[in-house]
Design brief:
- The chain has 217 residues and is an alpha/beta fold.
- The chain is 46% helix and 15% strand.
- The chain has a single domain, classed as Rossmann fold.
- The strands form two sheets. The protein has a five-stranded parallel beta sheet with strand order 2-6-1-7-8. The protein has a three-stranded antiparallel beta sheet with strand order 3-4-5, covered by helices on one side.
- The structure holds 2'-deoxycytidine-5'-monophosphate.
- The site of 2'-deoxycytidine-5'-monophosphate has 14 residues, from α2, α4 and α8.
- 2'-deoxycytidine-5'-monophosphate (DC) binds next to α2, α4 and α8.
């Protein structure tokens, strides 16, 4: 079997990380893990149970998170893939993602997925804290306006939300995710930076596949 590697894709909110990670994993026949979905699932559990950032720490043992082969996420065996995308979760997730015991638990699960390599994982701290030894690290950026426009297009049919609200949420999350104490959003020193402001999905995937090819050779 050909060599299998770990691919870490980090970057700011809504830069196209998940789309790239998912399509890359499909092409390579790798496992795809959306680590942001895991923080969103914990946030959903807290919101549903009215736990604040302090209280949730005592309830982490009640939370189990898993993915199926198509990348759907399950919170205590319930498929929450759609529910975690709501603005009520986006507005709270950075608060819960800043809590050290939550991060410890998520990182442990994430590292488990990397044991056999052949994984593409996207998030904020994958190349720095989860898999500092990843063979290929990408760091995605794009202008806030372009990111907000793309996210707004995705959300507008299912949610009552304006472009301005989406932009505001993206900027706030970037700020909180970058300034938290535990494993803040940082570019790994050995990451390849990709500006995704003007690339098509196909062009981006092609470029990433070339980088994988180079890494493998
Ligand atoms: O990728 P996303 O926008 O769905 O992630 C939701 C939030 O989860 C994001 O605002 C920050 C947090 N997150 C994190 O702290 N660490 C990760 N590895 C992934 C996401």
């Amino acid at each position: 079997m050909s060599k299998r590697i770990i691919i870490a894709i980090d970057g700011h909110a809504s830069t196209g990380k998940s789309t790239l990670a998912r399509t890359l994993a499909q092409k390579l026949n790798y496992v795809y893990i959306d680590s942001g979905a895991m923080y969103r699932a914990v946030t959903l559990y807290a919101v549903k149970n009215n736990f604040d950032a302090e209280q949730i720490i005592d309830h982490l043992d009640e939370i189990s998170i898993s993915f199926d082969v198509s990348g759907q996420i399950f919170l205590n065996k319930e498929n929450v893939s759609d529910e975690i995308r709501g603005m009520h979760i986006s507005e709270r997730v950075s608060e819960f993602a800043a809590i050290a015991p939550i991060r410890q638990k998520m990182i442990q699960i994430q590292q488990g997925y990397g044991k056999d390599k052949g994984v593409v994982m996207d998030g904020r701290d994958i190349g720095t804290a989860v898999f500092p030894q990843a063979e290929l690290k990408l760091f995605m950026s794009a202008s806030p306006e372009i990111r907000a426009q793309r996210r707004f297009e995705e959300l507008k049919s299912s949610q009552n939300v304006s472009y301005e609200e989406v932009l505001q949420n993206i900027l706030e999350r970037d700020d909180k995710d970058s300034s938290r104490k535990t494993n803040p959003l940082r570019q790994a020193k050995d990451a390849i930076v990709i500006d995704n402001s003007n690339r098509s999905k196909e062009n981006l995937l092609q470029y990433a596949l070339e980088l994988v090819e180079k890494t493998l050779n």
